[in-house]
Specification:
25% helix, 7 helices, 23 strands, elongated, alpha+beta, conserved putative lor/sdh protein from methanococcus maripaludis s2 fold, six-stranded antiparallel beta barrel, seven-stranded antiparallel β-sheet
Length: 461
């Protein structure tokens, strides 16, 4: 009977030992965790406390430079000039020989354009030129037109001619002269309808009215439009053919408002076409339109380009380079100009490492140089590099601080300041000391055991 009692006691003792080992393992793991986190917290605190408060490098930029007493001027050192790679240029008077580049479209020379128009009504009996784009020569037959009104006028001419011949030897006073006037009036009527003198003489010679009238090309060229077909009825004043001489064409270009004063009549142009690469054609500015497009803020100019080969066609796109007259002007390197919204700035070297921003008024830009209309004088030194440090959207103070590295640790808010910022929550600084904490462990009682807890910030107490 004592055997079960001993076995029960041994089982209870073994269970207590197992619980003791489990509790000891948990406590050991907790102690290791506390040690590791404590080291990490200590390292972080050391890094924060070792951050310089002033007079040290931050982000590779020295903060020793300070604003000058002259308003927005700034003071930099020689080491900062080398560190940021700042270079300088000189304001000088230079000869500007600029080239204005733009695009254009080939159009027809309006002075080389003509139309075939019938001044009386009629019907198309025959077409000699029946295709758009067909080339024609001057005086080449275009079409035959039947017009009852024209036939009646020809009959009047024949009657007047016969009457004049019959009264040529008449003794009636004024009869011969009146007959001559009738012939002249009938002849004049046909001439006003563009009937040639040769056709009128042929009617008088044969004594027969022609049924149809042949219209001829007024000039050599290419048929751009054909508005007539066989058998069509024609109204007086209707345009039948549109003919253009393309031996010389126009190239209409759009000029920026800033380039209007540079381009003049007579300026030479180099015109390049995508269809004929590597073969630019020489042209000349023949006209500058007197109006400005208010929507695009551009003005048009007309360039005359020879086209004896006939390769250029209306509607083709062209790339144009216009050579403007050379002149001497006060210039500054273009890399020195900072465009900040509605104005332009240049940093002027005042000597002794002092840089002062100067507002300038700019003119034309030619290659690597920009004309200065107002704000600078000859011989001044200006900053020409390290412009990436300046933000065109920032105000002037931020621009200068970013350029010379004036943002130091004094500009960084501390934790106490961040606590008072709206919407900002910063961790409280770490604390050391003894804190009373309570813990409850389930299971058999354990003696001679020490528990350690993780440090907690005041906000989590």
């Amino acid at each position: 009977m004592t055997m079960p009692t001993n076995e029960s006691a041994m089982s209870a003792s073994l269970a207590r030992r197992w619980r003791l080992w489990i509790i000891t393992g948990l406590l050991t793991a907790g102690a290791i965790t506390v040690f590791v986190l404590g080291r990490r917290h200590s390292t972080t605190s050391t890094a924060v406390s070792s951050t310089p408060s002033s007079g040290h490098d931050m982000g590779g930029m020295q903060t020793g430079a300070a604003p000058s007493s002259d308003g927005n001027a700034i003071q930099i050192t020689a080491s900062q000039i080398r560190q940021f790679g700042i270079t300088f240029g000189t304001v000088e008077r230079r000869t500007l020989e600029s080239t204005v580049r733009t695009v254009g479209t080939v159009t027809v020379d309006e002075a080389r354009r003509s139309q075939v128009v019938l001044k009386i009504g009629g019907y198309v009996e025959r077409l000699y030129v029946d295709q758009t784009g067909q080339r024609v020569r001057r005086a080449q037959p275009m079409l035959d037109v039947y017009s009852p009104e024209l036939v009646a006028a020809e009959q009047e001419l024949l009657v007047a001619g016969n009457f004049a011949r019959s009264v040529r030897g008449s003794s009636v006073p004024g009869a011969p002269g009146a007959s001559i006037d009738l012939v002249a009036a009938a002849r004049r009527r046909l001439e006003l309808w563009d009937i040639s003198g040769a056709q009128i003489e042929d009617i008088l010679r044969t004594g027969k009215a022609r049924r149809s009238l042949t219209l001829h090309a007024p000039a050599s060229g290419v048929v751009l439009q054909k508005n007539v077909v066989q058998g069509q009825a024609i109204q007086p004043g209707q345009m039948l053919y549109d003919i253009a001489d393309l031996s010389e064409v126009w190239v209409d270009v759009a000029l920026r408002e800033a380039d209007v004063g540079a381009v003049r009549v007579g300026s030479t142009a180099s015109v390049q076409f995508a269809g004929y690469p590597g073969a630019p054609l020489a042209g000349r500015v023949a006209y500058v339109y007197p109006t400005l497009d208010s929507a695009s803020r551009s003005m048009r100019a007309r360039i005359e380009v020879p086209n004896r080969s006939g390769r250029l066609m209306p509607g083709m796109y062209a790339t144009v380079a216009l050579t403007t007259p050379s002149r001497t002007a006060l210039t500054v390197p273009s890399s020195a100009v900072l465009r900040t919204g509605d104005r332009a700035l240049v940093f002027v070297d005042k000597g002794g490492g002092r840089l002062e921003p100067q507002a300038v008024q700019l003119g034309r830009e030619t290659g690597d140089f920009t004309e200065v209309v107002d704000g600078l004088t000859t011989g001044q030194r200006v900053v020409t590099s390290a412009q990436f440090l300046l933000d065109s959207e920032s105000n002037l103070g931020e621009v200068m601080r970013g350029m010379i590295g004036q943002r130091g640790t004094s500009d960084i808010p501390n934790a106490q300041d961040m606590q008072s910022m709206p919407g900002m929550t910063a961790p409280a600084p770490g604390e050391s000391g003894m804190n009373d904490r309570g813990a409850r462990v389930k299971g058999p009682s354990v003696r001679d055991t020490t528990m350690k807890g993780m440090p907690m910030s005041p906000n989590r107490r």
